[in-house]
């Protein structure tokens, strides 16, 4: 059985991401693919939010246990800190893996991109992923002398291994206000430029916003690509 690790977004948890990605998850289940949803290690407080939330809504957030994240938000990429998150996820992978691929949304997609690049370095006994699905993804960027660039602190983390054979699938919304699709396209371009086989990179744009698309007509070709990468015979 093939196995995929799912990483949720900011102010979510594994259960919510499972619900939000139900369209993809159900099609994968039919193909006998196990989907494992992990909760982020950061438990957010109201003061950690990059926006205002009234007390009633925040209480509902706490009661639903969706005050989870992979790292604290900052508009300054160099301030982001993964020093505890990466060991947390790698320990989980060591205990529960190996995984054939990884799927991330928003914050989880940024983290999934790093893990895709560095999994064999961070968990030496783990093979490279066969597939990496990055939904509403982004990298840790800043303005440089020649335009946008990866902030130096995370340059190595977001540098793809040229000889990698991981199938990369980018999904983004044309009207995403939280993570503009230009950020996902920029991350995809890094892989296209760096990989020996740029054909490994596919992009799917939907007309929605910051969301996981579930319409079958849209996700069927994506799931077919995942199955192909996993070596699953398609009917």
Automatic annotation (TrEMBL):
The keyword Hydrolase applies. Keywords: Hydrolase. InterPro entries: AB_hydrolase_fold, FSH-like_dom, LovG. PANTHER family: ESTERASE OVCA2, FAMILY OF SERINE HYDROLASES 1. One of its GO terms (molecular function) is hydrolase activity. This is ZYBA0S03-10704g1_1. The keyword Hydrolase applies. Residues 2-221 form the Serine hydrolase domain. It comes from the Eukaryota. One of its GO terms (cellular component) is nucleus. It comes from Zygosaccharomyces bailii (strain CLIB 213 / ATCC 58445 / CBS 680 / BCRC 21525 / NBRC 1098 / NCYC 1416 / NRRL Y-2227).
